Amino acid sequence: MTYEIIFAGFGGQGVLSMGQVLAYAGLVEKKEVSWMPSYGPEMRGGTANCIVIVSDKRISSPIISQFDVVVALNQPSLDKFESQVKPGGTIIFDSTNIIIPPTRNDITVIPIPASEAAVQMNNTKVMNMIVLGGLLGVKNILSFDSVMDALKKVLPERYHHLLPLNKEALLRGKDLATAKVHA
């Protein structure tokens, strides 16, 4: 199975980190992966996105223009990438920050109040892990255990004390997303 995903938002929201963690988790599971970041010169506060491909077979090109999943953390990203979701694909978005939801009815739309949930967890920096957990909860891309193994590799050791919080955020995102799907 091949998943072609774009994570998009403002720099500083953890967009590139989400993609990097997912790509590393793919390596943990011996999948073929591609992680291609893109960001403006201002990085923090500017626009950022990354394309991640996770596949059971070789990836012919990391450059794609249609996605199975769009993960949008802000309105400009949703506005830009909504039209690039393949019919039957999925948009997952932070409903705390996005006022105008997707309008397409040929895709699955999953709003997650990730920023609000991060505030409730007393750490706004885990918002991206909440959204990633939501993605993993609705798409059988990779296991949570592989993502946790990847986090250990991606996070510098001085932040390993935050691994339990990140795990809690992933599980919170899964619960929020699956509740939306089954609603």
Brief account:
With 183 residues, the protein is α/β, with parallel strands linked by helices. It has six helices and six strands.
Major sheet summary line: 6 strands, mixed
Care to count the β-strands?
A: 6
| End-to-end gap | 27 Å
The percent range for strand residues is 25-35%
**What spatial order of strands do you see in the largest sheet?**
2-3-1-4-5-6
In percent, how helical is the residue content? 25-40%
Uncertain ranges: none
With helices defined by DSSP (H or I, 4 residues minimum), what is the helix count? 6
State mean pLDDT (0 to 100 scale).
92
Kindly provide the radius of gyration, computed on alpha-carbon positions and rounded to a whole number of angstroms: 15 Å
What is the H/E string? EHEEEHEEHHHH
How would you classify the helix and strand content by structural class?
alpha/beta
Q: What spatial form do the alpha-carbon principal axes imply?
A: globular
Any chance you could write out the topology, listing elements then pairs?
Blueprint: E1 2-10, H1 15-28, E2 32-39, E3 47-55, E4 67-72, H2 75-81, E5 85-94, E6 108-112, H3 114-120, H4 127-138, H5 144-154, H6 163-181
Parallel strand pairs: 1-4, 4-5, 5-6
Antiparallel strand pairs: 1-3, 2-3
What does this entry look like structurally?
With 183 residues, the chain is an alpha/beta fold. The chain is built from 6 helices and 6 strands, in the order βαβββαββαααα. It has a 6-stranded mixed beta sheet, sandwiched between helices. β2 and β3 form a beta hairpin. α3 (114-120) crosses α4 (127-138). The chain starts with a strand and ends with a helix.
